[in-house]
Specification:
The complex is a heterodimer of chains A (293) and B (411). Chain A has 293 residues and is of the alpha/beta class. Helix content of chain A is 35%, strand content 29%. Chain A has ten helices and 14 strands. With 411 residues, chain B is of the alpha/beta class. Chain B has two domains: 273 residues, no CATH class; 95 residues, D-Maltodextrin-Binding Protein, domain 2. In chain B, 69% of the residues lie in helices and 6% in strands. Chain B is built from 18 helices and four strands. In chain B, helix 14 packs parallel to helix 16. About 2% of the residues of chain B have low confidence. The interface between A and B is medium-sized, with 25 and 25 residues.
Chain lengths: 293, 411
């Protein structure tokens, strides 16, 4: 399944929030939706989920306009919150039912997820008796219990301790493996980089760059080498264009990408090299470049 | 079961598992049980030990009233009129005795046809002066008639004679209907205000707890709005049926003990047709206000905003209630203001119902009123769902009416 947003525009009153958002996400892959605060991520997600219509543009599934009744969607909003005073099991079943599940199926699915996320002991407790991290796990169940084809997770890792973060990572990987479209929105670039094959960076209501992360990185000029060596100081002093970075690695600026093999041969002949690679920008670097002012 | 049904079920469960809701209902039923079983319980406990009315109790238990400047016949007449008091003649300062607490009150004769009533604190229910006046007027007239030459028996015959009359109301007896109409209007008033507030708070809580973020992506706003309003209506009805139903059951169990109490009898003697009208106006009135309260709740970002936001609607409602109650108490339920109010959808549930109960509006009048109300309910319901849909996603400051209207137009 391919989910595609095509040239979405949306204004609220005078305020233009989206002025041309397009991206596509595929089944069995995770997609990263990035952008600074107020860039238009949540509005894009709401249009994708059919909360309100776009002023213009299309949301397509396999090339056809989306039918929200036939595509299951799960959503973990950035602004977390359920009913604090109600029993956990009651509200989880309620949300699963609202998503179209029958009562008996909803109970089964919710219980399975409570067990999967190690939350069964809290089943009959009130939500507000739980810690923030555990409340977040409960909320995650509302996004997953009805087994949706599209899972939208907005800042899923914020507030989780490392053990829970690991648990969530496993769950997300499973969902991807099961052929779901997983849409991530996060400011924690390391997680996006770990999961997402494709990204879109939204800046001021417009998609600044989108595509396979791998391809985006390769588009950067490949004229810088990063070398790790015990002789890094000697290399920095002895090789033209070389300098030390803050980690103690040697950065060698090539006069042209074609010189790469010559330089590497020269280095390996003269010095004890542990590792040498072409420098690729991190997602963080790309984000700062495209989402900055 | 569609989304509406699921929302309805969830909301209803919320009401019926709410400890405050259940607690208040049980409390009111218990209070009614206590009140309505009271005469029976007194009868069982007290038995025949109580003194018969009229039989004077122990002398020292009775409070003292003083008579100053009257004769033996005046004293006798007052003793008859105030059997619960010990009536004493005094020559001293009666007013001082009242102030010091020696006597409850004092009657000081200023002449054969005038007296002054001295009492420490005058209660608004104090009828002692009237009772004394009646008793002393009798004495005064009897004396005057015998002085004019009539024998005492002739004089008494003249004074006891009365012109008899009977009342036959061709329409509705307003006195008879007043109590249950008042109770129903008041129940409507309480239920709409209480449950309207609950709907508004309920929506605002979902919004402020951000459960709304998830709800808007899971359910249609019209389903949510109607689900909530219908649930609160059913919960309100369940509560009313519990309270009124138990009152009727308790009353019938104790009917023999209440037999001669006219007010209680009138309250429980309402015609079934009126109950049907009550149901119709109750449901429609409830809906129209609950929709408005729900829409208002959706525009509030914080729970604290609710009280001020609902004020305009509450004021309209209270104004309508006032008009109806004044109409009822003044006896002119068909005055022009009441007639106008019985067609305006925000006041007609109370105004038209009162007119049906206490007057006899033509059937077409009732029909027009109901049609207007039904149409308005639908209109308000749809508008409320639209406001709700826009309102629930508006965070930040309190949105201005203009912003909401614009957003609704765009939605």
């Amino acid at each position: 399944m391919i989910l595609e947003l095509r040239d979405i525009h949306k204004s609220f009153g005078e305020k233009k929030v989206l002025t041309g958002v397009s991206f596509r996400a595929e089944s069995g892959k995770a997609f990263g939706l990035l952008g600074r605060n107020g860039a238009g991520k949540t509005t894009s997600i709401r249009i994708l989920m059919g909360v309100f219509p776009a002023d213009s543009g299309e949301v397509l599934v396999d090339g056809k306009p989306i039918d929200h009744r036939s595509i299951g969607m799960g959503y973990l909003p950035e602004e977390r919150g359920l009913y604090p005073k109600k029993k956990i099991i009651d509200q989880l079943i309620y949300f699963a039912e609202l998503k179209g599940m029958r009562y008996a199926d909803a109970v089964k699915a919710v219980d399975r997820w409570l067990e999967r996320l190690e939350m069964t002991e809290y089943r009959d407790k009130r939500l507000d008796t739980l810690s923030k991290g555990n409340q977040q796990k409960i909320q995650l169940i509302t996004a997953l219990a009805h087994d949706p084809e599209v899972v939208i997770l907005d800042e899923p890792f914020s507030g989780l301790d490392p053990v829970n973060a690991m648990l969530l990572k496993d769950v997300v990987k499973e969902e991807i493996q099961r052929g779901k479209i997983v849409l991530f929105s996060s400011h924690q670039m390391s997680y996006i980089e770990e999961f997402c094959d494709s990204v879109a960076i939204i800046n001021k209501g417009v998609v600044a760059i989108t595509g396979e992360l791998h391809d985006i990185k390769r588009e950067y000029p490949r004229d810088t080498l990063v070398v790790r060596s015990a002789d890094s100081r000697e290399i920095a002093d002895g090789v033209r264009g070389a300098s030390l970075d803050e980690n103690g690695d040697v950065i060698i600026k090539l006069s042209s990408p074609e010189d790469k093999m010559d330089v590497l041969r020269e280095l390996s002949a003269r010095y004890d090299i542990d590792e040498a690679k072409v420098f690729e920008p991190s997602l963080n670097d790309i984000f700062v470049q495209y989402a900055g002012d | 079961m569609g989304q509406f049904g699921k929302i309805l079920k969830f909301e209803l469960k919320g009401y019926f598992t709410n400890k405050v809701f259940v607690g208040i209902t049980v409390f009111l039923v218990v209070v009614l049980a206590v009140v309505l079983f009271f005469p029976r319980a007194m009868d069982l406990i007290g038995g025949g030990d109580e003194p018969e009315p009229g039989e004077p109790g122990a002398e020292e238990d009775r409070e003292v009233m003083l008579l100053s400047g009257g004769g033996e016949d005046a004293l006798e007449a007052l003793r008859e009129a105030f059997p619960e008091y010990e009536v004493k003649l005094t020559d001293g300062d009666a007013a001082a005795a009242v102030t010091s607490g020696e006597a409850s009150f004092a009657i000081v004769m200023d002449g054969p046809g005038a007296f002054t009533y001295f009492v420490d604190n005058l209660s608004i229910y104090d009828e002692n002066a009237q009772r004394a006046s009646e008793a002393l007027t009798g004495v005064y007239r009897l004396t005057a008639l015998t002085d004019a030459g009539l024998s005492e028996s002739e004089a008494r015959e003249i004074m006891d004679s009365q012109v008899s009359f009977e009342v036959e109301s061709l329409g509705v007896d307003q006195g008879e209907n007043f109590f249950y109409t008042y109770i129903m209007i008041f129940a409507l008033y309480m239920v709409i205000l209480l449950y309207g507030q609950m709907v508004a708070t309920n929506v605002a809580t979902e919004k402020s707890s951000r459960a709304m973020e998830l709800l808007v992506t899971s359910a249609k706003p019209t389903s949510m709005m109607f689900g909530k309003v219908v649930a609160s209506c059913l919960a309100g009805f369940a509560q009313i049926i519990c309270i009124f139903g138990s009152a009727i059951v308790f009353y019938n169990m104790n009917r023999a003990w209440w037999g001669d109490n006219p007010i209680i009898g009138l309250i429980f003697d309402m015609p079934p047709a009126l109950l049907v009208y009550m149901l119709v106006f109750f449901v429609l009135g409830f809906f129209i206000y609950a929709f408005m309260f729900g829409a208002i709740g959706s525009t509030a970002s914080k729970l604290e905003d609710i009280n001020t936001s609902v004020m305009p609607v509450t004021l309209i409602f209270i104004a309508g209630f006032m008009v109806v109650v004044f109409g009822m108490t003044s006896g002119s339920v068909d005055n022009p203001l009441m007639i106008a109010c019985s067609y305006i959808p925000f006041t007609s549930p109370m105004a038209m119902f009162t007119r049906i109960a206490m007057s006899h509006p033509a059937f077409y009048e009732i029909a027009i009123s109901i049609v207007i109300l039904v149409a308005s309910c639908l209109g308000v319901g749809i508008a409320a769902a639209k406001i709700y849909r826009v309102g629930v996603l508006l965070y930040g400051g309190k949105p201005k009416m203009r912003d909401i209207l614009r957003a609704v137009r765009n939605a």
